[in-house]
Amino acid sequence: MKKAFTQKDVAKFAGVSQAAVSRFVSGKGSLSEEVRNRILTAINLVDYKPDPIARNLSNRQSDIVAIVMANITNPWYPVVLELITRRLQTLGLQVLLFNATPPQTVDDLMPLVLRYRVRGVIITTASLSSKSAELCVHWGVPVVMFNRYATLGAGYSVSCDNIAAGRKVADEFHRIGAQEMAYIGGIPEVSNNRDRKRGFTERIAELRIRPPMISEKEYTYDWGYAATLALFKKNPAITAVFCADDEIATGAIDALRFALKKKVPEDVVLIGFDDHPIASRAAYQLTTVRQPVEEMIEQALDMLLNGNGEPELRLLEGEFIYRSSMPAPAA
Amino acid sequence: MKKAFTQKDVAKFAGVSQAAVSRFVSGKGSLSEEVRNRILTAINLVDYKPDPIARNLSNRQSDIVAIVMANITNPWYPVVLELITRRLQTLGLQVLLFNATPPQTVDDLMPLVLRYRVRGVIITTASLSSKSAELCVHWGVPVVMFNRYATLGAGYSVSCDNIAAGRKVADEFHRIGAQEMAYIGGIPEVSNNRDRKRGFTERIAELRIRPPMISEKEYTYDWGYAATLALFKKNPAITAVFCADDEIATGAIDALRFALKKKVPEDVVLIGFDDHPIASRAAYQLTTVRQPVEEMIEQALDMLLNGNGEPELRLLEGEFIYRSSMPAPAA
DNA sequence: CTGTTAGCGCGTTCAG
DNA sequence: CTGAACGCGCTAACAG
User: Fold this and answer.
1) Is residue A53 part of a domain?
2) Residue range of the domain that includes B19
3) Hey, are the CB atoms on B116 and A73 less than 8 Å from each other?
4) For residue A76, is it within any domain?
5) pTM confidence score
6) CA of A82: which chain B residue's CA is closest?
7) Among residues B259, B274, B292, which one ends one of the domains?
8) Contact at CB, A57 and B54, closer than 8 angstroms
9) Strand C–CB B308 distance below 7 A
10) What is the mean pLDDT of each run of 10 residues along chain B (331 residues)?
11) B65 occurs within a structural domain
12) Contacts by B33-40 with C-beta closer than 8 Å and gap 24+?
């Protein structure tokens, strides 16, 4: 229960003023060699560590970044969270984690988040409402939406080029001659779902193939499973399914194999999205569009920390990962 | 970029002293009805929200709890994280997330964690070294180890009764007449691995069955897969495998089915641990020992927030969840 | 019951 | 180059 040593203590030991110590640790202002050394030895002596809380109060700028998530149990997000925290820690920043668990929305959480004088906010859930966006601008806190973007052009966004990816999936299905296709989507309003669907259906139209059946609801295994059952009941002739993420896709594969007794890829081919850790398992071997997570994070943090305030959307390309659920073209 | 309203502002609007406002928001001390109302209207007027940072500085006690994790990508931990943050948020507490990514250890992280004047620390990674334990005691910060316990009897711990569970697994295997068994473990030093192994092997010895083959390394799918291949190469007659967690178990199942062409459960039965989200999927249908996560969290937070400082280990019972990888006894 | 005062630990003028 | 002094927003003792 002892108190930590403060700059005042260091100052006393070094026989200088507290202000000098402050200048030393911050590196701002100038100190004589003499004083610098005395302070340094004093700091080592008492093992002084700056108090981030006090610093934040005085600064009005903290070293913590808030992350608002709602989908931690979707296996792709732990990967994201892992990489973000790791990257942030190397930058000397910390992560304050907020869980937007329904019915709690980002809008509800935002005022709370802002109270912590965070350096910035990363949102992987829904997108910013205009109300929350205003709030952030108001308090001068940068926000970046990760894997989705705001329809109202506020804040920063990083996302995969979902439209292009959707088009490519259509091309792949076309390449192997699929005629009856389906799209099993995630949350209808979310930008990534809309874009993946759009790229897919638009390209299918261009190719003059019959429009795919569409069913969308949420990004879960259970939904993928249930949607597959429903879709194939309506149309047993489907031979190619594009799933908006890997959770949905693995659910679809299980439904196909274990409930509908179909073979993947012989009877039905599937393509997912994300390349999350489960997708590569032997039980699934899912062909998928890998999101360039590390690069996305790099871009997100760049905007967050070095952004000029102008809303911006950075689009990165996804990478096709071929596995057995949808074989690669013969080389 | 506007400044937030402070107690001082509220005080000015209400025509009272700032201290009065402080008493109002904290609920401590007494105020006249008169003043109370004036303050309340002033607060609503300017939409005053207390500043947690400033409060922390003044208090020497924060409203944030640190969580130190290293295994976020193991699907059981997102569940834990999700539930902890949710529970904490309802208590008005926030989560500061630290990633002990190798080679960074808990010991390295602890001094950093402590600087944030956190209310407490939850560790799901390794257990406290004596050095770190001392540090926490020194600063009066309570620590609880989640799903593991300290060998040196410092800090709080919540864990499943792993020994009992291990014994029960042995009984189950014995019930169906298995003779050649194996244990695929996680990180050798971790208490939960040691206890699961111990309960299992001890009970097997009591039952006078041949001792199981043992192989342990880490809690991952890949390890489960690799270990299975290696074990069955040495002894193809194995018919029952106990895996220290579900990640290992699902890896083992895939190795069995896809590499070794064995049938589960006809040729080999398996039991895992945790009951993580993947275990219940159609592709695995894993019989497992479910950890009572919610109750564990409840106990963990109870000790963290209301503990008396005495080291304590709370052991909760696991629940057998029967699925097809090891059928339940006929009723 | 209420206001005044003194910190919490640090950054930042502002004189010397 | 350096130290004294003030403020960040809030809590807690202390008088009235």
Assistant:
1) no
2) 1-43
3) no
4) no
5) 0.93
6) B72
7) B292
8) yes
9) no
10) 83 89 86 86 90 88 91 95 95 94 87 91 82 83 91 85 98 96 96 96 97 97 98 97 98 98 97 98 98 98 92 95 94 74
11) no
12) B38/B14, B39/B10, B39/B14
